[in-house]
Amino acid sequence: MMGTIINLCIYHEDGDYLLNQALNILRKFESRYTINKTYSELIEVNQNSGIQAVTVGEDLYDLVKLGKEVSINSDGIFNIAIGPLVKLWNIGFKNARLPSKEEVRDCLSLINPQKIELNDSQHSIYLMEKGMVIDLGAIAKGYFADQLKRYFIEHGVKNGLIDLGGNVLSIGSSPVQRDGYWHVGIQNPFKSRGNIIGAVLTKDRSVVTSGIYERYFHQENNKYHHILDSKTGYPLENDIASVTIISDNSVAGEIWTTLGFADSANISIKRLNAEKNIEGIIIAKDGKMFVTSGLIADHSVDTEQASKFLYI
């Protein structure tokens, strides 16, 4: 689902029922938020760009509102208006290609989040310029994971793990580990999938990883990855191979995995160290690993809101 593998694990006497309900919730979210199907609420918003405002459900409206705010405050590093650029490159699909400089230039005027007009009283969204496209791919899975966790907890689940294609959110502690921590592996960005470079030990927190190894293509001896720069219209260029964020909720993790690519690995880890309730692991292209001060192997943590990092 959503172009990835979903894994849900819960400990509850009504587990089968709750898991089936969770899948139904995910299907409903996907049908309303996708931009890759025939119809969804978000597709209707995009199809009416430059034409008229479209009223949407409260949850979609609130997520777009949050996305717009972060997009503006981050100076476009995180950008939900980046849809036209994503479609132009199409990285991750069979017809991915290197666009011309003229195509990229024409796209840049369409990815301005300031041109997303929101009406709080009507829950309507208006894209002010024809051809604009909102893409929630950088935040939607985090929102879905947070909503699933809320649903499970409301129905009495005290222990579980939600994994939406590498976007991992834990509920309580792990009943199968002696230390009570969920052990969440961190992909080695230089090896095939399944080869991990370390593990986050976590309770009741989110672990989200984004890397340049996830979606890319090669052309003329150059590698083009899917993390695009709103200012240049091309994939971001710096020394970072992957960013992992540990946070209280998955939406924050999604946002910060994108913001973590804004600068060099050294500068980004300093920025993460200054954030409250956020921990991070950044792996540079030369293999060097940067870890925030709260993630150390011998760090003793007794609270439920806890996480630590072990090298493997």
Using the 3D structure, state the CATH architecture of the largest domain.
Roll
β-strand percent reads 15-25%
Give the mean pLDDT: 92
The figure for the number of domains is: 2
Query: Considering DSSP H and I runs of 4 or more, what fraction of the residues is helical?
Result: 25-40%
Strand order of the largest sheet: 1-5-6-9-12-13-14
Order of helices and strands: EHHEHHHEEHEEEEEEEEHHEEE
CATH superfamily of the largest domain: ApbE-like domains
Instruction: Please count the helical segments.
Output: 8
Q: Structural class per helix/strand content?
A: alpha+beta
Q: Uncertain segments of ≥5 residues (pLDDT<50)?
A: 297-304
Give the number of DSSP strands: 15
The rounded Rg comes to 20 Å
Pfam families: ApbE (PF02424)
Protein name: FAD:protein FMN transferase
Enzyme class: transferase
Organism: Paenibacillus brasilensis
